[in-house]
Amino acid sequence: MIERKFVKANMDDRKIKDYLKDKLANSGFSSAEIEKTPLGAKVIIHASKPGLIVGKGGQHINEISAELNKKFNLDNPQVEINEIRDPELDPNIIADRIVQQLIRFGKTRFKAIGYKCLQKMLSSGAVGAEIVMSGRIPGKKHKTWRFKGGRLPKAGYIADHLVSKGFREVQWKQGSVGITVKILSPYVKTPDDFKLTKEKEGDK
Question: Do 67 and 93 fall within a single domain?
Fold first, then answer.
């Protein structure tokens, strides 16, 4: 019984996050966290354009709160916005941007879009970055294209715990295309990050 409640709670949270991702697709949405409190539910939205989410006089955020209550039965939802100040280093925002550009410019421009977004991540200080487009792009056969630069470990502790990952999907008539973005942020301290210092005479 406990396991079923746990699974249901996770599924409900996933539905809410998917709803917010679609609802705020043009607002620099990255991710969301849902916390249960004695006063109700707290929904923390991470996004690069908080002003668009809040709306004039808080109108938009009030609408979101009302819909969360009506559609998902969240009790007294309190929505908070956490501004992402470095959107070029957020994998979800980059993946969403690629999707929007593919929709706008078409699949034939996918290489230019991939390289441009990669360069923006590296120019913003990313230690390493990778974009993977997988699906029927640009033709009818399923292919995987990679755009990568810098230093991005593929295995080990850094790859598993310190590399940020994002995923978005775009639907075409011929099928879907998945966009996976990985970033090693310059703000992350890795185990091999150290500096040599000169030995002081008193330490000898």
Answer: no
Q: Residue 153's domain is classified under what CATH number?
A: 3.30.1140.32
Q: Which tokens sit at 201?
A: 């005479």
* 63-90 CB burial, b ≥16 within 10 A, e <16: ebbeebeeebebeebebebeebeebbbb
Closest by CA position to 186, among listed 92, 132, 123: 123
Of 30, 60, 83, the one marking the end of a domain is: 83
pLDDT in the model for residue 83: 93
Instruction: State whether 180 and 91 are in the same domain.
Output: yes
Question: Is 105 within 8 Å of 114 (Cβ atoms)?
Answer: no
Residues of the chain with pLDDT under 50: none
Report pLDDT digits (tens) over 165-177. Answer: 999 998 887 788 9
Asked if the bond preceding 77 is cis, omega within 30° of 0, the reply is no
